[in-house]
Amino acid sequence: METPICDFVREYAQGGGQRLHMPGHKGNGPMGVEALDITEVEGADVLYHSDGIIRRSQENAAQLFGAARTLYSTEGASLSIRAMVYLVTLYARSQGKPPRIAAGRNAHKVFMTATALLDVDVDWLFPERWNGLVSCPITAEGLEAYLSQVQELPTAVYITSPDYLGGLTDIRAISRVCRRFGVLLLVDNAHGAYLRFLPEDMHPMTLGADLCCDSAHKTLPAITGGAYLHLAHSAPELMNRRAQDAMALFASTSPSYLILQSLDGVNAYLAGDYRQRLACFVQAAAQAKNRLTQAGYALVGDEPLKITIAPKSRGYTGNNLAQLLRERGLECEFSDPDYVVLMLTPENGEQTLAQVEQVLTAIPQRAALTGSAPAMCRPERYCSPRQALLCAGEERKPTECQGMVLASAAVSCPPAVPVLVCGEVIDDAAIALMDYYGVDFCRVIPKDK
Predict the structure, then answer these.
(1) What is the pTM of this model?
(2) Domain range for residue 106?
(3) ∠ at Cα 245 (240, 250), nearest 5°?
(4) Residue 51: which pLDDT band, with cuts at 50, 70 and 90?
C-alpha cells in the first residue's frame, strides 16, 4: 500500500532546501528526527482541509478499517471523542431536538468534559453488575429495557469497549437494539484498533457502530498521539459532511507531521503480513493465559491482547503485584487495589510472553486477601455538569467534602466508572470509594453556589 505522507516528507527532507518556515529547529536537532518534522508547506496538504496526500492516506485507512470515511488525529482518541460528541450535537439540533447521549458510565474523562462544554445531557448507563471502577458491563437486554422505558429517546448511545480490564461489549447486539429504536451508536474503541485484523473481525465498524474512535498508538505501532475517527456508511450525511469541521474545532492548527507519517506508515504495516502475525501472537498469548490460570492466577477479561490479573486470591493487591513486576523488569499498563493490566502487541514477541510467565510463576503465593471495593451507589445530581465545571471551586480532601458538589470533570481515570462526575453530590458512599482508590483531593463547590 502506498504511503503518500511518508514519501512526500522524505523527499522534502532530502531536497536540501532552506527551511524559511516553522518549526524552529530547521530540520536539525538532538533527537535525530527533526528533518522529518515539518509543517503544512506547499504540497504537504492541510489536516482537516485535506485534498492531497493526507486525504489519500486517510482513504487508505478507511479501506483497511471498513469505514466510509476515516480521519486522522494527532492528538489521540481524545480529539476524536470530542468530535463525536459535537457531531451528535449538530445532528440532534438539525432534527429540532436537544442533544442527549445515553452513555456507559465508564466513559473517558474527555467525554465528560466534551458533554459539559457542549451542554449535552447525558443519561448514565450504570454497570449491570458491580466489578469495581474499571469495568462497566452493558448488555443489549439492559439497553433495550432502558430505551423502552425512557421518556425521550437519546440521540445516541455511547459505549466504551474494550474497557480497561479487557472486557468486550457485544457491539453487534447493542447495534441491533440501537437500530430498532432509531438511535445512533458511538463506540470508544481506543484499546481495540487491532480488532479489525483478528481472524474473526471484531471491530465496531464491522459490528454496526455509526461512529468510532481508535487509538492507533495503543495497540498498533504508531507514535503516541496517533488516532482515528471512523464514520460508517450508516452515519447521517450531515456527520460525514461536517466531520472535518468537528475535528478542526477542537484540534491544534499545528498537527505533528511525525505522527501523520506514523499513521501513514501503519497503513502499509496493516496491509502487509500483520493479520498473520497477529493471529499467531494471539494464539500464543491465549496459551500463556491458560498456563497462568493453571498456575493459580485469576484472569479476567476477553480481550486477546490484555493479560488482566486479579491477584488478591494469591495474596497481593494489584498495586503490590505491579511493583513486584516492575522490580523484575516488567512495566505494567495499569494497576489498582484489585487488578493488574498487561497490554500486549505482536511487537512484544513470544519471548516477552515467556518472560511474563516466568516472572509471575516465580512470585510466591500467599494467604488470600479478602477486601473488596465498597459498593457503588447512584449519586445525586445537583446541577448540570456544565454549571459545575465552570465554577472555580476549591480543592479539599474527600473526608472534608461530604454534602458538597464535585466541580472537577470526574473522579477516576482512565476510562472507568467515575466515583462522581461534575455536578454530583459527594456522599458517604463516594467518600468510601475515593478512600479505597487513593483519591487524595477533589475540587468542590458548596450546594448553594
Answers:
(1) 0.94
(2) 4-271
(3) 125
(4) very high
